[in-house]
Amino acid sequence: MSDQESFFNRRELLKAGGAGLVGMTLGKFMSGGQAFADPSSTGKAKKAEPKAQSIIHIFLPGGMASQETWDPKPFAPIEYRGEIKAIKTKLTGVRLGSLMPKTAQIADKITLCRAMTHGEADHDRGTHNMFTGHRPSPAILFASIGSVIGNNFGSRNNLPPYICVPFQPNKFAGSGYLSSATAPFSLGGDPARGDFKVRDLNRPKGVDAERFERRKKLLEAVNKEFAGKRKDANIEAMDKFYQHAYKLINSKKAREAFNIKAESKKMRDGYGRNTAGQRMLMARRLVESGARFVSMTYGGWDMHDRITRGMKRLVPAFDQAFAALIRDLDARDMLKSTLVMVTSEFGRTPKINKTGGRDHWPKVFSIAMAGGGIKRGFVYGSTDATAVEPQEDALKVEDWAHTVYHLAGMDADKKLPGPAKRPIPIVDSGKIVRELLA
């Protein structure tokens, strides 16, 4: 059974208990606790807004090669630099791969981190690093950054705090040791498809508002009777789940956030009528409406063979969409409060192999960041002449994660209750990389 199948088979379990009234996709992600508390209703004094009020995490699964994209080596021998040329950008002396002309024109709005490093050459272990900020442990499944942030801040404008487009891509993107209430809300469909719609967002077919309200009251009565006989945290969580699920279903404004067809033809075309474009456009709609953390994936970058062909197939759509997203956020005055991160589980070998591809290389690779308190037009870290290893300012996973949490308004040294209430640090070691901060 695939990870994706196992995530959604839990739907049937909840339906058996009556949760089918509103749908499992809502149930998984709104079932209680602080995860969906509305901070504005707690009566506590409001804290200063964090720099990154929302985060978009664009994950490129498989391991994107930096040599063909973020960190080309035009003066290296052909077997190292590859066939894809390098082009100038808006930043003096900074080049990108020639398949990224649109990103080159917004390089003055982003930061390139060219010396990301960890020691995990396995896909799962590298992916774990980039979704959790932790090195893998056989003793515990750590919570994803999205789940931790959602758990800390809760819902905003009746939207789930943590949303995956289109699905939760792997188990490391989930709630880990935290309550399942902090797991992501998944769209259940790809916004690039013509028949796209979000699962369970509307009332069941044939159920009008009056009937829906009657069901709600009946369920409340059953829950009250059951809770009176047995005090249980899970029962209380389910009760809160229903309240939040009803709020989302009954909020036209919240539901409209998922309506990508409300975007103009010009806007949709500008992002690109493809998987990369429409997923990034959906991410913008969601953070604009109140989602705190949106995670999306695009492509398959595990190019052991014929990397030039693979890059020509995937990079142009990414280039168009990413540049459009950054420009769009900036034009809406949202970039300063929205952190955008482009990551992959590791990089690729410095030297092209015998089949024209590159193999796994976690020793050094590149990521991109923009907005949400990150410097504009900046390059942090560098690699040696053939991208074998970091040359200066190596960026460790723990330091990167600390910086992300700091921008989100959280102290990554804080501990959360784990299994058997054992305190687990949000990030184990690491520090804020202040050179990245605007």
User: What about the largest sheet?
Assistant: 9 strands, mixed
Low-confidence stretches: 1-25, 27-44
Fraction in helix: 25-40%
- CATH C-level class: Alpha Beta
Q: What would you say the CATH architecture is? A: 3-Layer(aba) Sandwich
User: How many structural domains?
Assistant: 1
Give the overall shape, derived from the CA principal axes: globular
Task: Output the CATH homologous superfamily.
Answer: Alkaline Phosphatase, subunit A
**CATH topology call:** Alkaline Phosphatase, subunit A
Helices and strands, in order, run as HHEHEEHEHHEEHHHHHEHEEEEEEEEHEE
- Total number of strands: 17
Structural class: alpha/beta
How many helical elements? 13
Query: In percent terms, what proportion of residues is strand?
Result: 5-15%
Radius of gyration: 22 Å
Mean pLDDT: 87
N/C terminus separation: 45 Å
